[in-house]
Amino acid sequence: MPADHKNSHTKTKRVPRQTTTKPSYYEGESSDGDQTQDHDIIMQDTNLDGGDSQFVVEALKTEEDEAIKGIKPEREEAESSTANSRAQPDHDTLKTRQSIQLRLHALEAEFKKKRDEIFNEQLKHIDEEIKAVREGTHPEFEERLQQIIDKREQMLEQHALALNYQRQCIQKEYEAETLRLEESYQAQRQAVNDRLIAEVEERKRKLSEDYESYDIHNDVAMDGTMRTHTQRRLRTRTTQEVEVKVKKQKMSGPSVTYKLCDSDINEDLAEIGLSGFANRKSAASCNKKK
């Protein structure tokens, strides 16, 4: 059928070419480009037949009508065949589409399954990591914890060194301050000792002077009315006379009449602060009485 249809088409194409070219040729329009081989054949036939152009044109028209009448059923058959051929690919396309859709559904289901598996696997892995972190066995947690421990130990070591340094500084300051206080104490102690010794020596000297100036036995032995009278002279006094006068005045004491016993005297002297002096005097008096 397709070959017949093709031949019919070629015939229809050739017939119009003959109808279009024949009238132009008989009307006197001669052109080299419009003349074809079919025209030459037709002209040769007409020349051989005696040049009856009208008969030739009518013959061509009848042939064209017959060709057109023969083409119509062929065209209908071709259209029906093309419609059948189009209907058949539509069915194949539908099957192909259905198969593709089935494959897409299968791929989508497989994708969802894989997605769920990956999600569950990752979720399980995350849960395991959380559990490891809480238990303290996670490798990353251990690594970070080790870094923190190292930093802590380093800081503790630095603080220990700083503490030892401060202790040494404080110990040195303490020792220096203790030494300074000890030196100050020794100096003050020596000063107090020297001052007390000086005071005691001064008291001893005063006591010795008092002993020499207030000798009780000498006062008793001396006459109460006895006075030393210096001679008044008009001449210049020498140093010897002045010394003798001073000595006489120093040795002289007040005339005291003792009417008290030794105990009363000692009590009075104790109240005055001369108890030791009174004891010595009483002892001396006792010895002399013996």
TrEMBL record:
<dbReference type="InterPro" id="IPR013907">
    <property type="entry name" value="Sds3"/>
</dbReference>
<dbReference type="Pfam" id="PF08598">
    <property type="entry name" value="Sds3"/>
</dbReference>
<keyword id="KW-0678">Repressor</keyword>
<keyword id="KW-0804">Transcription</keyword>
<dbReference type="GO" id="GO:0010468">
    <property type="term" value="P:regulation of gene expression"/>
</dbReference>
<keyword id="KW-0805">Transcription regulation</keyword>
<protein>
    <submittedName>
        <fullName>Sds3-like-domain-containing protein</fullName>
    </submittedName>
</protein>
<dbReference type="GO" id="GO:0005654">
    <property type="term" value="C:nucleoplasm"/>
</dbReference>
<feature type="region of interest" description="Disordered">
    <location>
        <begin position="1"/>
        <end position="96"/>
    </location>
</feature>
<keyword id="KW-0539">Nucleus</keyword>
